[in-house]
Amino acid sequence: MAPVAAAGLPAAMCLASERRLWLAQADPVQRLHVRSHALPPWAAPHRIAHSPAGAVYGVATIHSLDAGGSLTSTASDVAVWRRLALMDAAEPQANLLGDARAALAVCSPAEVARFSLLDCQTMDVLASVLLRPFEMPESLCVASLACLERPPPEAATASAGGAPEPAAAASRSSHNGGDPASAAPAALENAFVLGTSIVLPGEDDARRGRIIACTYDAVQQQMRIVGSFATVGAVYALVPFRGMLLAAVNARLLLLGWQRRAVGAGPAGAVRRVCDGVVCAEDPEFELVVLCSQQTQIAALSVSVSGDYVAVGDIMSSVSLFRYEELVVPSASRANASLADSEPALEPPASQLRRRLVPVSRDYSGVWTTAVAAVPSPLAQNLPRLFPEPVDAEVGFLLRQHATSYRQAFRDPAQERFVVADAHNNLIRMARAEDIVAAAAEDAGAAVDSERLYVEARWHLGDMVNVIRPGSLVMDIPDPEFPGLFRPVLVFGTLHGAIGVVASVEDGKLGRLLDRLQTNMALLLPTPGLWDYAQWRGFTSDQRNVPAFGFLDGDLIELFLDLPLETQQLVFSGGDGAEAEAEHRLKSEYWASYSRVEAEGDVAVFSQMAVSDIGQREDVSLDYVVRLVESLTRLH
Question: What three-state secondary structure class fits 176?
Fold first, then answer.
């Protein structure tokens, strides 16, 4: 492959094989309406978060320093940056920062990080502060933290009164990562929470870091740093959770709360000015404390929440799933009370509440995870549409002997599902099916590992995804012909600057129809350079290369609208009567390719992988398929 420099063929390329030579041009990609905002020279954006209530963006950037140790963009901030290394002698975490001050005396860092607040409309900088030397931003989120009372000492030591009682768990129907309404009033509304890491010269990994909470006062027009927490490691991920905060710190998952300071603890630091528009004003009554923690595997890089469940993506050990539980610990006075006393309270006192994260299941495939995000549950109105009756004489390709049990297991849409991106440019959808899979396997007489996350879909994207967030790129305008059946639920960003959308097809028949269209286009139409489409989209890793399933390629399906009418009819009919021969051949190839993974037990769904006559099999017209694909194009 080589570029072609010709006036008649701008932006062309030359493709050569053993027998053929092609001249080709790449189709222009669809571009969004983007308004750009220029950063200062030698500044790179690193993290961003949005506070809708305050109409403010929080942006963490990294700036290069010149040889003299000054900022190349704003040299006036040098004095502020130097003073940051000397401002923390009275803070509890000063012992962790003493090494940074000593290292600064020996050598200066090549980069310095900055956290800024920007107005959503004008993109003007409202406030900005430099981080400490050798400190880099790793994570950023917006959270509303609820007031938590500190438990009394007798509650922590009372064990003779009986075992802890489980409190009423939150509803599992809430599949989102936000902060549900809590009984306790919110003490810290819409705060920006920044996680950092500190790597000193001579160190390979971060051994220290900070979690910084700050708010913006629109009246006084200043950023207020209201709390900070020193960590032993880098804070790779921060997620708000039920009025609390989940933090991934190296190989541990921490649950932090905005808790009242202990009686007799030292007072909060005095209000002090850091720089123009930024003051350090720690809350005199509350502070960030660790409520509970759980060990992960190697290094937890991403965290996602689905109801009571927390998924943690590990850099080398795939995904682990934890369940949040609340326990009621009897106080000393209650333990000594008679058993004939009044009935237990419906709402236990907050002082007796204990929280914990319990390991539930994990994926054992050894995926190098780069991002993970929870998939929202389908709309209630679409539940009857998810599992249509199979077409006569076609039952799909079931990949296990007891696959019927799995098909029954995954019929429950309330199960927790997650989209996972790995370092080999793949996308995987995993599901927790602990209770239903065990029941279905027991009925079928099969043994199932209830501690395993099961794979529902996998697909090769071709670009490394480093972030996945809930959301969409367009307004949610229901299509009158397909109301609420196509929902954009996730947005992802890649290493090379691409933005993509993951949409949920909440109609089983339409999903099967689109799967047929995708298969016909991939197998009947030539690909650029005559590459094998199935091999390109197949799941790829260091251990194996296997076919993809469970995902629909939106870019390929939308090309159907650009085809001439004759070609559309050819794809729609499945190749002018060659369906039977092609289907038999493709079925044989399909089963042969899966002979290596059939015994691994990680595939739980069926997929359409043969050319078929869409009109005959699904009883639809070509115009209907065109309108269906046009509806997909409105998702982005």
Answer: coil
